[in-house]
Predict the structure.
Amino acid sequence: MNYGRTFNFSAGPAMMPEPVLEEIRDEMMNYRGSGMCVMEMSHRSKVFQQIADEAEADLRKLMSIPDNYKVLFIQGGATLQFAAVPWNLMKNGKAVYIETGAWSKKAIAEAKKYGEVIVAASSKDRNFSYIPDCSDLDIPEDADYVYICENETIHGLTYQQLPNTKGHILVSDQSSMFLSKPCNVADYGLIYAGVQKNVGPAGMAIVIIREDLIREDLDPKMPVYLRYDTHAKAGSMYNTPNCWDIYCCGKVFKYLLQIGGLEEMARRNADKAKVLYDFLDGSEMFHGTVDKEFRSLMNVPFVTASAELDAEVVAASKAAGFDNLKGHKSVGGLRASIYNAMPKEGVEALVEFLKKFEAERK
Ligand SMILES: *Cc1c(COP(=O)(O)O)cnc(C)c1O
């Protein structure tokens, strides 16, 4: 059906799969005979408990999450996790962070309020256009964890290989790449993601944490909501959870399982991103800003030779029916976020538009 929807290249909140939106619409007024919308439902009701249980079970299946990991649904987005990670995991008060762009910088700033942060590698020298070598980092023996932002949403770069943590716990912010490809959860101590980039509506983060890292011997002054043990003990229902978000995310998990899981999603994402990167590599007017081997498949920043021309392209793209292509001010130019739910046709249409724009200006 044609709903007159636009190809929305927003970095987040972002597109959701159309079949999921249709299902949500169909269940809006009366969820499966319950007589109410999920938005109106008690989180303590049997019917909602089943929605939450199924969402967790489907996510576990999708990512093959080992039994010794807890899945937590926590409000406050990814930003609250910038604080929750150091407050919960810093036992010795010391952690190693890798600085690769705007989001790891924010996490570093927040962690510094709580403990000692050692930035063991950075790509700041070239405005975060590459991932630094993390094969032989200088990691103090007593560091509590090594932290990465696995896909930098603003600068558009991603890890090809996880850092060598030399036996230390790895913590990863996967917000803008969550469920975009298979992930070996056992490689991590903790994974978290704000869901509004690649899964569902804004307002929640999913935390996947190895059970033995959930501590009770925490600073007693710590806000109760910030403690992972609070959420783990209460099955993510210590207080009223974001019921609507859990419901919508659950639908997306089912959708991903149905299309063939994360292998199939990864195949589609690679195929889709190639259309745009191939165009950028052949273009004289447009250029990608990230070193080829570290290019993100989710967020594609690109520029022309001048800020004036960039602005013209953005304006023209809007007039042509594309949305949210303006780049972040720290990189400039344009940025196309092409998450899981962006169809290949959207990327093909964008490339056609850019080709035409370039041809007309020659
Ligand atoms: C968007 C984003 C965040 C912040 O997410 P909120 O849910 O808005 O707090 C953190 N990290 C990354 C990598 C992001 O893309």
Observations:
- Residues 68 and 212 are 8 Å apart (CA to CA).
